[in-house]
Amino acid sequence: MNNLIESWKPKWNSFRESMYLLARNKLSMIAFIIMVLLLCAAVFAPVLAPYPEDVSSTHIENMLQAPSAEHLMGTDELGRDIFSRVIFGTRVSISTALVAVGVALIIGIPLGAIAGACGGWIDNLIMRITDVFLSFPPLLLAIALVALLGAGLRNAIIAIVISWWPWYTRLVRGQAISMKERKFVQAAETIGTSRWKIIFKHIVPNCISPVIVQASMDIGGVIMTVASLSFLGLGAQAPMPEWGLMISTGRQFFPDKWWYCIFPGMAIFLTVLCFNLLGDAIREILDPKTRKR
């Protein structure tokens, strides 16, 4: 039991130090609290939404009502409660972004580590393919791919993954080139450790900090991309409660029925801002220079 307690002390101390660094930046702490609330809203959406059935049902008698005590954010053209749909939209947007970034990391990290560690023709092959994808703006490439694959949230995720993985490949490759010159990697090579073990046991773990920072900030960008694709009719399809789709539908009623566009837009703004602020906070926490101050 004592050994177990002793093994947890470094982890607990590191966690306390991380929370201290986060709390030191008031803006980042506020963003962290809001992000926790957004994640809770995504997980417990059926419980928190006052009208969970309004995700797909219609109530024509309540169409386009202004915000009130009964409907905090008003209703849409089918009488559905916008507040309930915004809460469910939190689940759609955050889960989509996490899946897209996660798959992009799974593809990009190994390719970047292999390219940087192996060098030679392997590096040239991987990086030339990567450069082809990097030559297009991510949103423009995603639009082209979804137009080719067909509209839908699943195809939007596939398009975002294809657009995003090269950025992680290039980032990890640069880190891997630096890492393979370190003495601990050269020592592992000297004692005959296999190249694959060196890559995935020594190089990749030591490249992960900048990747975490980049991924945490990219989640906000992916949420914007998903909303943009849905706004253009290429992403989520009705009646799915996706923020970009809600804005696209509500723009025909703007500005008279302002609440239809404003509240989903505020949800996008708040979520993207929180992820960007948290990305800065994570960079500060993972920076050794910051920990010494």
What does this molecule look like?
There is one protein chain. The radius of gyration is 23 Å and the shape is elongated. The chain has helices at 2-24, 26-43, 45-48, 82-118, 120-134, 138-149, 153-179, 183-190, 195-231, 243-250, 259-286, 288-292. It has 12 helices and no strands. With 293 residues, the chain is mainly α.
Note the main sheet.
Answer: none
Low-confidence stretches: 1-13
Per DSSP, the total helix count is 12
* Shape type: elongated
Structural class given helices, strands, pairing?
A: mainly alpha
Query: What value does the Rg take, in angstroms?
Result: 23 Å
- Roughly what percent helix? over 70%
Number of strands: 0
Gap from first CA to last CA: 35 Å
Which whole number gives the mean pLDDT? 82
Order of helices and strands: HHHHHHHHHHHH
Tell me the β content: under 5%
How is this structure best summarized?
Helices cover 76% and strands 0% of the residues. With 293 residues, it is an all-alpha fold.
Summarize the topology.
Blueprint: H1 2-24, H2 26-43, H3 45-48, H4 82-118, H5 120-134, H6 138-149, H7 153-179, H8 183-190, H9 195-231, H10 243-250, H11 259-286, H12 288-292
